Amino acid sequence: MQKPPMTTTNNIQLQSVKDLHKDHHQRSVKKQVLISLSILILLITATILLILYGKGYRLFVQHGEPTISKTGILNISSDPNGAQVFIDGHLTTATNNSLNLTPGTYSITIVKDGYLDWKKDFQIQKEVVSNAFATLYPKAPSLQSISTFGIKSAILDPTGTKLAFNIASRSALQNGIYVYDMTSHSFPILAGQSSTTQIVN
């Protein structure tokens, strides 16, 4: 039996279906390529931003306009720690922290309740790490004697970190010249403690 010949309408419909299938396939391929390119561009952009961030570049808003500039690092620490850090009069962070700052001169003030304020100006340069260490002194320090044997004379060294004193008592074992290290945090009550060293009998 012979198949009936295909009509022109059937040919047109078949061609139309093929064209639709081909068009759908092309759009699907274009969509996949577009998604792949978008992901690739996103990964490249993220990598570049991470590299710039690691090199010290930061986004700042200056005079109402966003700018990207290279920064310097300021390490801020204090003894005792946990003090407030004011940069140019604005509370910024607490001590034992690092800040990225644009190059320039900054007034750093470190404040803690019960202690005298510490203030210093710092010149921040790009790609340079600056260290700010503040020793905070109590507003009302406790006064203690460094010896109970009676000090005849005391002399402070030029650096202001050591105190030499002479003890003359009835006990010949305690007599001599002592040096007290004032950078130590334990203030001795008696001569001969760890912060005080007898150098001459």
Q: What is this structure's SSE topology?
A:
Elements: H1 8-54, E1 57-62, E2 65-70, E3 72-79, E4 84-87, E5 90-94, E6 97-101, E7 104-111, E8 118-124, E9 129-135, E10 151-156, E11 162-167, E12 176-181, E13 196-200
Parallel strand pairs: 3-9
Antiparallel strand pairs: 1-2, 3-6, 4-5, 4-7, 7-8, 10-11, 11-12, 12-13
Defining key terms:
201 residues; single chain; 4-stranded antiparallel β-sheet; alpha+beta
Structure description:
The chain is of the alpha+beta class. The protein has 1 helix and 13 strands. It has one helix at residues 8-54; strands at residues 57-62, 65-70, 72-79, 84-87, 90-94, 97-101, 104-111, 118-124, 129-135, 151-156, 162-167, 176-181, 196-200. Strands 5-4-7-8 form a 4-stranded antiparallel sheet, with no helix packed on it. A 4-stranded antiparallel sheet has the order 10-11-12-13, with no helix packed on it. A hairpin with a 2-residue loop joins strand 4 (84-87) and strand 5. The longest helix is centred in the first third of the chain and has 47 residues, at 8-54. The N and C termini lie far apart (134 Å). 9% of the residues are buried. Residues 186-194 have low confidence and may be disordered.
